[in-house]
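dumping this here before i forget
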Amino acid sequence: MDEPFYVIVRLRNTGAQEARILRYFEPGTHFVSFEIAAPGEGPQPYRPWVEGSFSPEGLAKGVVRLPPGQSYSGVVDLTYDGARGLVLSWPGEYRIEARYAIREDLPAGPVDVRSNELRVVVREPQGVDRGAYEVLQKGARTHDRGLWNAYGEQKACYERVLGEFPGSRYAPYVRFYLAQVHESAGDSAFSGLRGTAKGAAAIRRAAMLDQAVAEKAGGTAFGREATRFAASAFAKVGDLVSAQTLFEEAFVSPQATHQERLEVLSSLGHLESGLFHHESGLAPEMRTTRLRLPLRRFAEAMGLSVAWDPKTQSMRISGPMVQAGLKPGEHPMYISGGFRTEVTVSVENGRTMVSRSVIAALMAAQQGRDASRMF
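structure:
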């Protein structure tokens, strides 16, 4: 009961013609919506905490083309319902359906499809899990936010759970949210620690907790989120090597969804610009750096094929929507019928390393979009 709850939404084109969708899966944008039937109840609409909206330009950037047989996927965090609080708060079987709909007047519309039914069995905690659950229920902010939050008042509760019930099934979530408590204390303007050595230590503690959670949770959606959180925390304290390593791991995970990889690519851009380190208060000025990413590792994680052409001394990348070629040096990149500039390619220890713009261009082409309209 009351576990954090993540679901994967995957749209697949099962027709014979190319289809178009919008890549926004957050429930607050209302393209994807959910009906959840709790035990003994009829279906009720899921109400997100935060509502969102997009400009016409933002919607145009979000169009994804799906050839027959191709899919687009994302993770949705359904832990909290804006009206009911924690979703999985009763024992028994839950029935969940998703609907994806785009109005006719919006780009890629009209679309209106429903998912299969997902059934989830929720059980009451027993043994050490029960002990941990009872401690969590008495947390300082449980009355207004539920078991899981990043308020400083919750710190003692989380530390008690880890001290008394470190092996409980709730422990990984406790570590994850305790990490958020530490990170919030380290970079918040209200804590008095922002930009100080103690603030940096709090953020690094968060990074280590998140990394431990990621190693334990593995390739699950929760584990991948913890990996990204650990990476951003390391970036905030200026540890670019650890941050890049973890962002890479999140991108190349076989279970990663399209939206997760897009989020990682955006975060790598923030890593290059120095935004993470600057926003933590630990870097007075933003200092840019240029990342080099392993082409084959990233491309193959996206399902693309990579081959070296010894005659032209160039790399060839191919996939259902992608035909690309590039050479070491600072040359234009040929990709799916057009040239993409701002591309840097080098060979280091036998590996072809590329600028982030190369991966962005490949991802955009794979989704039938222009790389300049990725974000």
